[in-house]
Design brief:
globular, alpha/beta, nine-stranded mixed sheet, 10 helices
Length: 265
Amino acid sequence: MKLRILTPTRGGSPHWLTAAASIAAIAPEAEHVVICPDPTSIAAPAHPGGRTILRDEGHGLYAALNLGLRIPGDWEAFTWLNDDDVLADGFRAAWQRLQAASDWGAVYGHVGLIDASGAGIGALPIATEPADLIALLRRGIMPLAQPGTIIRRRLVEQIGELDESYRLAGDLDFFVRALEAGVRFGHCPERVADFRLRAGQLSQQEELGEQEFARAVGRLRAQTATGGLAALLRFRWANRRVYWERWRRHGAVSMRSLYRGAGST
């Protein structure tokens, strides 16, 4: 089973080389596809699985990712890693689980949070029960994280590419469409990637993010919710250490507050 990893970049991230090195170290067999405005400006360490650099046509993040999906190749699964995030050792376990479970359309794992220096500052809360994903989304909870998710090619062929009309929530929209289609997601209990909180990142645009979240999950919220409270309680209990660590490090703050804090540094 062959893997394609996409990295969209504007070319100015000081963490780009760290991101590329993590892909080469953790997933050396993967094909790495980089999408950027100026392919001649990208310097990167050698990648054993081969690296293709494409010119970003300037139509947004999800258009760039779709461009990376469309180029010819015999890949059977994909993920994408932003130019300031890093793969973690658990990525290997998630990849192995997806290969072993032919009925899974995607697998997701846990995602740590790091600061600009690469120091750990917590983790994202993640649903440990894939059957709870729809119920949690209906409650306005993001129960999985894109940097920790690997997706089969057949899922793209089944539900279509990423919706390029989104700026921030195209990954969420993709997951919602997959869940609506009855695609089975698998869970990996290990840390698959680290998401870097830094100033200026798209995910800090709160108002737009909230609007796009509501748009993406609107179809699910319109359906009859079942098992929502039980799913919420399982989610809170499974992530009790995540919440405790956040409180220990940062006090009584929300994830939104952490994003704001990153934007002020």
